[in-house]
Automatic annotation (TrEMBL):
InterPro entries: Bact_metal-bind_prot9 (IPR050492), ZnuA-like (IPR006127)
Keyword set includes Iron: no
Bias (Basic and acidic residues): 113-187
Domain of life: Bacteria
Name of protein: High-affinity zinc uptake system protein ZnuA
GO molecular function: metal ion binding
Signal peptide: 1-19
Length: 355
């Protein structure tokens, strides 16, 4: 009898004993870095679907449940995903979340007023993340789009002064004190396009997982070492390949690739739109056609998250190449090698159109 009760007790407790940590992520690139560390020891639940864009997204009730049940929420930050800021606060998850933009050691870029400064991107300047960018007051990420009360995205219509402001952070803490103190206005939030920044996130995710799932800490730390070693090799491989096309002019769909471009020495000649959810007007299209001719642009990139009709209209009657450039890696299979394949896919997309 006692033996039977003991067996039943163990069986009843087993699901709890075997429960995996649940890591909720905002977008696919975040999931890729997290997956490199979790392996099969933690579950990842992503909020923004692979076919959607974080620039214009509204949470569903199921997403709110994911946040409430998460052991940790990993997101890029409020300047990209303002739709997460209030729900994290309401669920009491804000302090325990990992906000990529706010992590110690990140190298961040500001949006530029124009792209004539691309030659001067070599300097890395120190940046205090707690300081407000007083000279960027005209860039208001708090504004909602008129037709989207629940869709909070980027307003990139107003650019910023200093595109060569690479920001490096050296602080004692993993995060800066309190999310309320982070002013990321003016900062380009597409940080996942930098392998260096991916390493920073991987290190913090490893530390957090080791804290909430101590019995697998050695496993997570081994995955981090493997990820860092593999990323160093992949980075060198991609750099060698892209060096062959780093003088070829091209136009991107929107100004969201500066981390990848600067890291690998690429240089776009312009962008179709600075705010991806807004179509460019006739004047902008005319300016772009002039730029294509003037700079002898060889490729205009579209994005799978947005209609290619704009690109088709822009290139009508020309012989300029076009190809999709996916900054979110929507079709990449999510596993421990996903981030490597994501970098490969971006590199291949550039090479196919510029080579």
């Amino acid at each position: 009898m006692n033996k039977l009760l003991l067996t039943l007790g163990v069986t009843a407790l087993s699901p709890l004993a075997l429960a995996k940590p649940v890591i909720v992520t905002s977008i696919k690139p975040v999931s890729m870095v997290v997956a490199a560390i979790t392996g099969d020891r933690a579950d990842i639940e992503q909020i923004v679907s692979n076919s959607a864009s974080p620039h214009d997204f509204a949470l569903r009730p199921s997403d709110l449940r994911k946040i409430a049940n998460a052991d940790t929420v990993v997101w890029v930050g409020e300047s990209l995903e303002r739709f997460l800021e209030k729900p994290l606060e309401n669920a009491g998850k804000e302090a325990s979340s990992i906000e990529w933009l706010a992590l110690n050691g990140m190298k961040l870029h500001n949006f530029a007023e124009n792209h004539d400064d691309h030659e001067s991107h070599d300097d890395h300047e120190g940046h205090d993340h707690d300081k407000h960018h007083d000279d960027h007051d005209d860039h208001d990420h708090d504004k909602h789009h008129d037709d989207h009360d629940d869709h909070e995205g980027h307003d990139h219509d107003k650019h910023h002064d200093d595109h060569d402001d690479h920001e490096d952070h050296d602080h004692d803490d993993e995060h800066h004190e309190g999310h309320e103190g982070h002013d990321h206005s003016g900062v380009d939030p597409h940080v996942w396009l930098s392998p260096d920044n991916a390493k920073i996130l991987a290190q913090v995710v490893t530390k957090r997982l080791s804290e909430i799932d101590g019995q697998n800490a050695v496993y997570y730390q081994a995955n981090l070492a493997k990820f860092e070693q593999g990323l160093t090799a992949k980075d060198a491989q991609i750099r060698a390949a892209l060096n062959k096309v780093n003088t070829v002019p091209y136009i991107v769909f929107h100004d969201g690739y500066s981390y990848f471009e600067r890291h690998y020495g690429l240089q776009h000649a312009g962008e179709i739109t600075v705010s991806p959810e807004r179509k460019p007007g006739a004047k902008k299209v005319a300016e772009l056609r002039h730029e294509i001719e003037e700079h002898k642009v060889q490729c205009v990139f579209s994005e799978p998250q947005f209609s290619p009709a704009i690109v088709k209209a822009l290139l009508e009657g020309s012989n300029v190449n076009t190809a999709p450039l996916d900054p979110l890696g929507g079709k990449i299979k999510l596993d421990s090698n996903a981030y490597y394949r994501f970098l490969d896919s971006l590199s291949d997309q550039f090479l196919s159109c510029l080579g």
